[in-house]
Amino acid sequence: MGVGIEVKDLNAWFGKAQVLNEINIKVAPNAVTAVIGPSGCGKSTFVRCLNRLHETVPDARVKGSVQVGDIDVYGTNTDAVDVRRRIGMVFQKPNPFPTMSIYDNVAAGLRLNGYNKRPELDQIVEDALRSAALWDEVKDVLRKKSGSSLSGGQQQRLCIARALAVQPELLLMDEPASALDPISTGKIEELIFQLKTQYTVVIVTHNMQQAARVADTTGFFLLGRLIEYDKTEKIFTTPSDKRTEDYITGRFG
Amino acid sequence: MRSRFQQGLDVLKERLLEMGGMAEAAIELASECYRKRDGQLAQQVFEREKMINDSERHIDELAVDLLAMQQPMATDLRFVLAVLKINSDLERVGDLGVNIAQRSLDLIQEPEVDVPVDIARMTTAVSTMVRRALESFLSGNADVAHAVLQMDSIVDRMKDEAFVNLVTKMKDNSENVRPYLDVLLITRYLERIADHATNIAEDVIFWVSGADVRHNAMRLSEEFDPDAPRSR
What we know:
Number of strands of chain B: 0
Oligomer: heterodimer
Low-confidence stretches of chain B: 219-232
CATH superfamily of chain B: Phosphate transport system protein phou homolog 2, domain 2
CATH superfamily of one domain in chain A: P-loop containing nucleotide triphosphate hydrolases
CATH architecture of one domain in chain A: 3-Layer(aba) Sandwich
Largest sheet of chain A: 6 strands, mixed
Helix content of chain B: over 70%
Helix content of chain A: 25-40%
Structural class of chain B: mainly alpha
Number of helices of chain B: 6
Mean pLDDT of chain A: 93
CATH architecture of chain B: Up-down Bundle
CATH topology of chain B: Methane Monooxygenase Hydroxylase, Chain G, domain 1
CATH class of one domain in chain A: Alpha Beta
Largest sheet of chain B: none
Strand order of the largest sheet of chain A: 6-7-8-3-9-10
CATH topology of one domain in chain A: Rossmann fold
Mean pLDDT of chain B: 92
Low-confidence stretches of chain A: none
Number of helices of chain A: 10
Largest interface: A-B, 14 and 13 residues
């Protein structure tokens, strides 16, 4: 089951430049939340703060608290690597391990964590590929084909399967369909809809129609601040803040 | 702002206002037809109605194109939805203008009778409602639209009074009921036009503020925030 998220007074910097200001947000378990906003508004930084990827950039730092289920993400005794294991992430550009087979791509995370029992591993790989709606397309070539031999849309679903294989508590997606054609995009969106029965999903997207199609709640970021956060239908029909309205109607700037 | 999209919205607004003008003219001509007992004016109402029907189809096409090609959001989405609904209301106003003209033609065929209803006053009230509703659409002014909503009950009262007076007349002149029945129907058509003006005003309020005030949902409710943005 997915877990809830509670972000309190989250601030983030690259060097001296503050890129997130006092972000406060609560996400319900098993909800899909879209994060929208213009380029440079801090939306990718925000999701990278949820799994402590932000701090992997030199001179980047974070202040505030993030609670994901029972994980105190920035707790003093919390291990960042463990956080990233428990919070999966899918990026804009599909990034399968190019020389590994499809099977090994999905199993990679588990093997890194020392899990190597063959029959169980087979089952987990199958389950993850089924959850990512890719199983039927690759089941006969699991070990014959490399991850990079798949189409862009299949590669992205492979990356989703890889993220799901380690059974994350939260799935973060940073523009997961922006490099894909409309059919592959449709499959990813359908997949997101299916995934929310088991996971909480936070998706960064530049495509507002995509946010409207897949998300239960939507947050609008501008200049590092969360301007408005509400039910998706409210954001796209009657937003409360004029800045949100100007952005989603294309009157921005 | 996407200029092609903005142009599309502007064209939609212009076409709807043109159609509104035709609908207003249809009411005016139908009313004159009744008042002057002039059958030629009825023909003009029928011609207007054809133009209004053509306009309705054209506006529907424009709106559907905008929805499909531009995927409007928020205030733009509400605007296009409001236009689609106002379009239907104005088409019905055109039909009701025809109905009034038809009843007026019937009346021309009959001996003139003393009518205990001030049709001219009722027509003025109804025309004012339609004009104000269209003004509120033109300016995106929800305050003007709210004023239209208040006028609806005045027209309802006029129709109720007319009903009572005309029924009395029909009882007293049971051998010559038909002209009174025609006038009764005309008051009914005018009241229906006022209802469509009310719908238009409600759609303008929805477009401008996002509030759904149909069926008195929020019209008199404390939930309605008088300080909320209502002009555009």
